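[agent] plan:
  1. take the single chain provided in the ticket
  2. run structure prediction with default settings
  3. attach structure tokens to the ticket
  4. add a short note for the reviewer (M.T.)
[agent] executing step 1
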Amino acid sequence: MKSICFIIFFISGVTLSQNLEEQIYSATEAFIANKNDHSYQRLVQQENNFKSEIKSKDEQLALVFLQCNKAFYLKDTNQLRKAISTYEEAWQRYSYHELSIISDFDIIEYCLKPLGNLYTKTNNYTNAENTIHQYIGLAEKSKNKAQNIAGIINLSALYQTRGMHSSVLKMVAKGERISGVSKLQEEKLTNLKAFSALALKSQIDKDIPKNQDMPIIEKPFAKHRLAYQLALKNKDHTKALEHFQRSKQFQNNEELTIRAMAKRDMEEAQLYYVLNDFDNADLFLENALRLLLPNYHNQKLPEESDLYAENTLIDIFDLKARLQTQIENALAYYDLSFYVTNLLTSSLTSQESKLANLNSNRKRSEWCIDLLFDAYEKDPNPKLFYRALNYAEKDKAAVLHEVFQKKSLLSKHPNDRLLLKEQELLKEQERLTDVLIKTKLGYQSLQNESLNKELLEVSIALKSVAQAINDKYGATQNQTIDFVKLSNQLELDQAALAVYFYGNKALYKFSITAGTHQLSKIELNTQFTKAITDFIHLFDHASVINNNVNSFTFQAFELYKILKLDQIVTQPNLIIIPDGLLNFVPFETLLTESTETNNFSKMPFLVTSNNVVYNSNINFYLQDRKKSSNHQILGVFPVFENSNQELRYSVDEAHSIQEIDEAKVLMHTEATKTEFLKTAADFGILHLSTHATGGDFINPASIAFYDQPLTVNELYSLDIQPELVILSACETGIGKLQKGEGAMSIARGFQYAGAKNLLFSLWQINDASTATLMDLYYTSFEKTKSAHFANRQSKLDYLQNPSISTTKKSPYYWGAFVYYGKIEPPVTRGNIIYYFFGMIAVLFVLFLWFKNHKTTNLND
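[agent] step 2 finished; step 3 output follows
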């Protein structure tokens, strides 16, 4: 109806001279009057012809109108990705040509609102938020209260979807302060407020603002929905089903979309499932599938070609999997869920959106691993083991791995304009994200809607470039593991591999050597979680361990056994891929035996028997990386003398580096963020001795320079690719923990920027002991040119150093530094001599062969 009104409005204003404009409106009118696949294909062909002829703003506006109607049809026919792209193009056209100057076309109602809703439906939360913020800003400027409230309602609904209930209450409060709200909008605000207040009250009462009463809901449907939510919170599923079915009675099915009806059936199926009524659960799932998939036949596994990006399909397949009695059937449904998830996330451009989508994948991976573990216990078949391992690694450090793939492709094609454009846009996206964070924290004062607009434009451009790159080079490969390559690499490295998957109910451990495999399951009970967290907290302060050494030795050995490391320490090198809380555990400080000694230098630490190397996932370990020939070192030492943050012993670290050839040191006032950013890309090794913080839920992780800090988001926009980064600072491996991806730390920021290998800290390290460790590290590194070897050797040398007191040999002083990267065999003086004589022998053999070959030719 609204579309027809606009046609009348626009056509009535055209003149006879505007032939192309008339043609565009006529084509759109014809399509609206008879929407089907045939008329859609004709419209697409006409649109392509119009694009090549358009010149005036009026013609551009007519095409925007066509594209909005085209996108609406695509949305209604579940072609969501095409619908999003079409709305994006319409908005870009409208914005770029400044069409608001010549018309009062309602771009919010007919483009931005449906685009924001589609972003939300497809889990693109970053773009959804940016779009909604943008049209709220436009509505405020035009003083359109109805659209302002609509934006507030949609943004609140988005926050509610993401569990950000405090933000919902703040947005609702903002909406309530606006006068002239319609009755329907008032009801929506009340419902949003009620659901979020309920959610917060069930979590922590103190999160609800003082004097915050539960809103009174009058509408029967909303009242029963709230009662249903409350019953779910209280796990009274019988009452929840009763209120759910009562709420259905007050719904007008004629007003519901097919998607809404399918979603409702899905919800009812979930209720029947938790009530163990599996027949009814399956019945409602089948109803939902028939609604969403016209080609679907009952009880048959849907074809991937019939699927599309839709959240409800994921929920349906996950529940269908749990209803299966055969493991292969269950895994087939889970794989369909993964497939639809990939459809949803393939167009995401910001890492924030990608990270937000990882959690549901992780839950599904755990369900798959659990099924395969049960089968593996009965039959320890290698195929079952490797299938489970693939699920465990499926989304581990996935965002980081994708960045490395992009940079690897660029290194192969350094002059490709598409790849260069993508890197430029990614940098700009991270720069804008950093500005937006600083604006929210009050460090910068800019209009949010302008940032939101820029971020959305960058995201749209990135998606377009990414599609062109996929067409040219193929889509980014998933993280399927090459197990033959893994076995060969482990044998070459004389290494054992311990891969952990930290789920919601269990911790799974995959132990692998060149010829063996073992899968273990550890239940995540209170006792287990306490053992991990208590051990991590031993390193909060030096006195914690030194005041009770016996407690430390007991906990260190117990955790070693709990994590089942005794099953795998059969090789000199131990590669650990941690997950969850294990990202913060210093494995090298665990004890391999029970001990009664209080002398730290005599304790059986894991570091004394094994060289421990960490990695983010298996594919990082297997990644082929060309070793850099750039051995120049850049040392950064702000020192901060004559301040309460002075790092007095940092000067000793600087002297250790200054003695090395090809080293440049930035000290005191020279150690600025600006100078570092300007020169970092020229060096193969970066050493930063300074202060750092892991951040919190509001402030991002950051590392200090003499003038100002560098945040983790700023690191995301860099492209420096050093061979090694040494972060001699506190908490450089600490940050907000993202399931599967790890800590959002300064160390991860350097990985994102291209660092191939890293050495960083897990707690607030001691200045003096760090200086000693770093001196020992560089002494070993200069001899061996092996970063991982030098890391272990420096710790062993520290423990055996007679000039260091027993108290200072506590693992608190030496255990903070962990090495993430490749295993590089040490190059010793003996190796070099053997290599030299070996080369002479090869050259001598070649000389004899050449001489003999030449003589033979002459005789012939």
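[agent] step 4 note for reviewer: The first strand starts at residue 495 and ends at 502.
[agent] ticket updated
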